[in-house]
Amino acid sequence: MKLLFATGNNYKFSLMVERLKELKDIELVNPGMLGITIDVVEDGKTAGENSLKKAKAYYEATKLATIAEDSGLYIDKFSDDEQPGLYVKRVNGREDLSDEEILAYYINKLNEHGGKSLAHYSTGVAIINEDGEVFTDTDREKDFLMTSKKCDTGCKSGGILGYISYDLDSNKYFNERTIEEEKEHYKELDEKYKQLVKKYVLKEK
Q1: Which residue of the set 25, 39, 70, 169 is catalytic?
Q2: Are 151 and 175 contacting, i.e. CB atoms less than 8 angstroms apart?
Q3: Helices H, strands E: what count in the chain?
Q4: What is the pLDDT of residues 25-71, one digit of tens each?
Q5: Which of 21, 34, 68, 128 lies 20 to 30 Å from 59, alpha-carbon distance?
Q6: What are phi and psi for residue 204, nearest 5 degrees?
Q7: Could you tell me which of 205, 181, 202, 189 has the C-alpha nearest to residue 69?
Q8: How far is CA 178 from CA 17, 22, 84, 96, 172, in A?
Q9: Where are the alpha helices (DSSP H) in 24-178?
Q10: Which helix (H) or strand (E) segment is 181 a member of?
Q11: Measuring CA to CA, how many Å separate 197 from each of 4, 139, 153, 190, 201?
């Protein structure tokens, strides 16, 4: 069965492929593989609302079972007005900053709050199965440390904030973790996604 993952992000798609690889009855596809592009206005107030907007748009266009996700970043020491939330790459109303400028912004903000803070991502997922039935859920992911001290050595390329995000389980920056350490960090979330797809897409009891 085809399951459409409503994302144009190849890295996120590769993670979902890995996450669902044990489900042999699922053939995961993305919009690019189907030759379609939909401009979804992600103006929801929560990650769950945005994931549902994306899932609905792509399901209505393809009638394929569809899964979508969205996430927001929340930093403990930041005030409500300072929280990035759903707009991690929007700084002072601007969305045209380079990765280096975004990184510098967060380093400066962290320095205003003592140089480090616990943080977490809140991730919303929406699934629409072939029959049009809708399921949504939101999870608070594991806490990690954000620090103004950038990883300068031993880091591989990755998400820009991975250079200042520190995994408390492996005691490594996100961008210096091994594949096995990344899997361990996301193990609970990965298992939940797999079970959701089995229940709501494959309708296994």
Answers
A1: 70
A2: yes
A3: 6, 8
A4: 999 999 999 999 999 988 899 999 999 999 999 999 999 999 999 99
A5: 21
A6: -85, 140
A7: 189
A8: 18, 21, 27, 31, 9
A9: 31-34, 47-62, 99-112
A10: helix 179-185
A11: 12, 16, 39, 11, 5
Distance CA 128, CA 67 (A): 7
Tokens read off for 31: 């919009």
Burial of 173 (0-12, 13-18, 19+ CB in 10 A): buried
pLDDT tens figures, 84-116: 999 998 888 888 899 999 999 999 999 999 999
Reply yes or no on whether 70 is catalytic: yes
Beta bridge partners of 125: 69, 137
In one letter, which amino acid is 63? K
What CA–CA distance (Å, rounded) separates 145 from 15?
A: 22
Q: Is 152 exposed, middle or buried (0-12, 13-18, 19+ CB in 10 A)?
A: exposed
Q: With contact defined as beta carbons under 8 Å apart, do 65 and 4 qualify?
A: yes
Provide the token pair at 180.
Answer: 């096995």
Half-sphere exposure of 101 (CA within 13 A, CB side): 9
